[in-house]
Amino acid sequence: MDSHTVGVLGGGQLGRMLVEAAHRLNIKVAILDSENAPAKQINQIAAAAHITGSFANAEDVRHFAAKADVLTYEIEHVDTQVLEALDSESPFVEDSQSWRRIQPSWRTIRQIQDKFVQKQHFAENGIPTADSKGVGTTSPQGLKEIGLELGGLPIMLKARTQAYDGRGNYPIMNLSDIEPALRALADRPLYAERWASFKKELAVMVVKTKQEANVDTYEQITLPFPVTETIHTDSICKLTFTPPRGVPIKIQRQAQDLARKAVASFEGTGVFGVELFLLEDDSIIVNEIAPRPHNSGHYTIEACHMSQYEAHLRAILPGLADTIEPGATDLAVNAAVMLNILGGPEPNSHLLVAKAALKVPGAKIHLYGKGDGRPGRKMGHITIVGKSMSEVERKIHPLIITADSVRAHKHSERTSDEAIQATADELLKLNPAPPEKPLLAIVMGSDTDLATLRPGLELLDKMPIPYLVTITSAHRTPQHMLNFGKAAASRGFKAIVAAAGGAAHLPGMMASETTVPVIGCPVKASSMDGLDSLFAIVQMPRGIPVATVGIANSTNAILLAARIIGTSEPKVQEWLAAHLQQMDDENMAKAARLESEGWQTYKKLDQAMPLSFK
Amino acid sequence: MDSHTVGVLGGGQLGRMLVEAAHRLNIKVAILDSENAPAKQINQIAAAAHITGSFANAEDVRHFAAKADVLTYEIEHVDTQVLEALDSESPFVEDSQSWRRIQPSWRTIRQIQDKFVQKQHFAENGIPTADSKGVGTTSPQGLKEIGLELGGLPIMLKARTQAYDGRGNYPIMNLSDIEPALRALADRPLYAERWASFKKELAVMVVKTKQEANVDTYEQITLPFPVTETIHTDSICKLTFTPPRGVPIKIQRQAQDLARKAVASFEGTGVFGVELFLLEDDSIIVNEIAPRPHNSGHYTIEACHMSQYEAHLRAILPGLADTIEPGATDLAVNAAVMLNILGGPEPNSHLLVAKAALKVPGAKIHLYGKGDGRPGRKMGHITIVGKSMSEVERKIHPLIITADSVRAHKHSERTSDEAIQATADELLKLNPAPPEKPLLAIVMGSDTDLATLRPGLELLDKMPIPYLVTITSAHRTPQHMLNFGKAAASRGFKAIVAAAGGAAHLPGMMASETTVPVIGCPVKASSMDGLDSLFAIVQMPRGIPVATVGIANSTNAILLAARIIGTSEPKVQEWLAAHLQQMDDENMAKAARLESEGWQTYKKLDQAMPLSFK
Hints:
Two copies of one chain form a homodimer.
Chain A: E1 5-9, H1 13-24, E2 28-33, H2 38-41, E3 51-52, H3 58-65, E4 70-73, H4 80-89, E5 92-93, E6 96-100, H5 106-113, H6 115-124, E7 132-135, H7 140-149, E8 155-159, E9 169-172, H8 178-184, E10 190-194, E11 198-208, H9 218-221, E12 222-233, E13 236-242, H10 249-264, E14 270-279, E15 284-290, H11 300-303, H12 308-316, E16 335-342, H13 351-358, E17 363-367, E18 378-386, H14 389-408, H15 417-430, E19 440-444, H16 450-460, E20 467-471, H17 478-488, E21 495-501, H18 506-512, E22 518-523, H19 531-538, E23 547-548, H20 554-566, H21 570-597, H22 602-606
Parallel strand pairs in A: 1-2, 1-4, 2-3, 19-20, 19-21, 21-22, 22-23
Antiparallel strand pairs in A: 5-6, 7-10, 8-9, 8-10, 11-12, 11-14, 12-13, 13-16, 14-15, 16-18, 17-18
InterPro entries (chains A, B): Ade2_fungi/plant, ATP-grasp, ATP-grasp_carboxylate-amine, ATP_grasp_subdomain_1, PreATP-grasp_dom_sf, PurE_ClassI, PurE_dom, PurK
EC number (chains A, B): 4.1.1.21
Family (chains A, B): In the C-terminal section; belongs to the AIR carboxylase family. Class I subfamily.
């Protein structure tokens, strides 16, 4: 597909997944890392080009660079001096005089390596981020003053370099934390950051396909992957949920735009991982950025049309960067969850999580070939994709419990798998998997409407549809009703059946607050034989539709809901087709019986017939 | 995950994809094949265990077997004598005295290798397959008589062994084909098969998790992957579509059951590929079976919860076979298409297809690392998954054209990429991609109803929904109307808006023939101000629902359809949410204007307001 050899500085799990993507495209990748590094294990074809050494060692990098046409990174802790020198010696790919050999640029790596420089870079480029100050002092009084300049405590004291997975961060919640913080991070270059009070951590992978750094043209030079919600424990990424739960699409678009602008501000091509904070006021700031594929983008392997690894490879190669079309980075599924498998107390404790995953249909296991586990070491991950967030949340639940149990034992000595499993079993009892989320809501204004709904509900019980039946009145609990409508789409309802009689406002009012289809079932009230209810439900103003069924015909209300759900749930459509056929068969049988028995004896038997056209 | 080393006889593309799956599970796989075979290229960790040699050579197999705990195949043309001997020397996996080392059994391979024996085996086990007769004769007269015994010409003359991708098959359409057929297949053991007049070729991958051969317990010892439709050109698999297009679910279930029974009749575990014919009368017969992952199962990598490769590895390992739960082999997407990339006239001609795929968002490229292409050689494949068959058909279309163009040139000498591309450009002009299939149908009984539908249609034109508007009358074209309804679900419609006035039978009759939600829009006819239409539409019998909107309110009919489609199309739901917000904003603006301008001057301006609550 492409004849260039890609040299990757670092051969951990990110390198391994880059190699995996490269194999599918038949692109040659060479690795600079220790012998038997995860990325090397799965790459025999480039064995001759691998170098055993360190990406942090200038001589090794120089030696390695001679074997690769394009150089890139799977880790940013590299020696940028030697990269700068290599770039000035031979800046371009030999057969493509317009394409830089080192992608993204060593300047980008240098800016990102020093987190304080990174923050200043964002500020200069108009990218919102937490205010920060360099810490030149080692005196508590000096740091206290910096804290005051940042608006007072709490603040976060951070090492400027060599910090990852929370190492190098020290939160200063009150004055007594200042001295221990300075001691903990002694001898390192430091900076202090204003405390970001976020309600969610988000991440966006962005692929940059042009060399130039230009925030203004971010729409031309970058494409975003979906927004993902990240959950950290002990400062290490534990889970990602895509799309982020409970984050409106408008805010997701804002997050993608901000991430693209942040990435557009750096030189060179490739995938960048952008960590964001969603603040209490719904504004978004950039936390930090990684100039490479990122843990929070693992989900893209199964969930997106193109993985972050393929995107990175294509973006750094001269002939392929321009082939990445809009849409390529989109989700191919409705929901995805990723769980990191971290090392536990024993070398193989983490395998408990992978083994539990074997039993979960749809759990995609990725083990990195790292050998022995250590507490907190990233040994693998699991991705589950599905039709809904509710589905993937339910499937991942027992695996989170197992991972939590491994973590709970991480400092124990000689912990058997059985002990960890016992913890998991106990936790699962305390915290069982959430029930399947309902796809259909049936609401009524008063419990007197239940009699009308009963035939429909009895039929519903035979269908493969999880549902919720509740009471909410347009007149007695108007606010509750509006709130129910507002939340309906994000709760995952695909239809709402609303029954009401008389003035019958419930279906129409519910429909005013949601984009979910509302089915109105007119109940016969005290007068007019239900005609009042029918008109109150069906004659909605233009703009707000209610799907109205016949007076008191709850069977049809439920069947209509099933038809709606069946448009995206093949099992439900299959049930409905069988039901149509059954009604057909029943009616033909009735006809045959009526013809053969005569009308005189027919009536009694009719009572025995199930459902449908009675 | 598992400490056993899996030895694979053969290291082509199937072996390569097995290795890929093994890496994710951290399972060690060793390969017996020539140096630099595709599977070895991506497997450094087992390099020491690989053997350079042939899976058909007994000595090589014996030498290789010593290095592996479990032996399996990626090709059935292996020496079963040596496998039989190995099995009698050490039948079980060393640390698991109940698990056979050779999976599936050498007996299974031997039965399948000889296609006539395979057919007889099916017949003995009650598996429907084409009638066949061994051909002991080399005389045309003898073959003619066999043809008569099989019910007359046409028949298919087939080599019993070493036949694949159509090589070894010779169709005898009439008497004059007999002599050339015998010449073409001279010196090979032959059999003759009754001609199967099929309307579709299907395939089902089946994973078998127990050692025993028992057709009766097929539900306990096998799990099926989805049914896939295979398209062959020049007897080589060209495309697969999953689920199969236009095949009712009932028939798909029958195909899966038949495939499971066929596989259950063989000894040992692993994945089997079952090729089926769907005959003109909707019955299904088994064509042939492969005791390994299969070309027609490549799609499972992206489309199913578990790939056929992972399923094979897990099924052959003692500790993992029982972890494959029902559901694990299901589709995780709605539709998938797979296109084989075959070699063309020049060593790299096939890369044209892969390069075209780079431009198609969602096209997953797999190149096998086979080096130079030759006409017809399988060099790679492309899989596209999506929300609907229509979507994946449109996306794959230009790639099929490119593949066809490579094939059209396959026997040309020195054909440049430009010449092939020119052919592709021309073909694409003659045969452009099919238009996006409509998700919404709007039907009316007469063109006089168009006036009522117009406001809704004008709004629909602003929505991201492909649609069809047509005329079909319950009374003037009843059969056409019923046919339209019958085909609606398989055409991919997610909603039907039906407008009718007066007796207004159209919506209800349409709803009687489909599981797709039907929205009824009552048109004001000559009398009763539309009340007659409303009642005729809304008061349906129990069992057949019509979603009825207000009299002449086509805007709401379309908005309701959009809400239904929005339950599975996030873009549509996003549009609707913005539209709700816009209506809210407009109304608030009107309120503000009315308050500030006073009611006296208000009316004129109202005309300028767009859509919604006028």
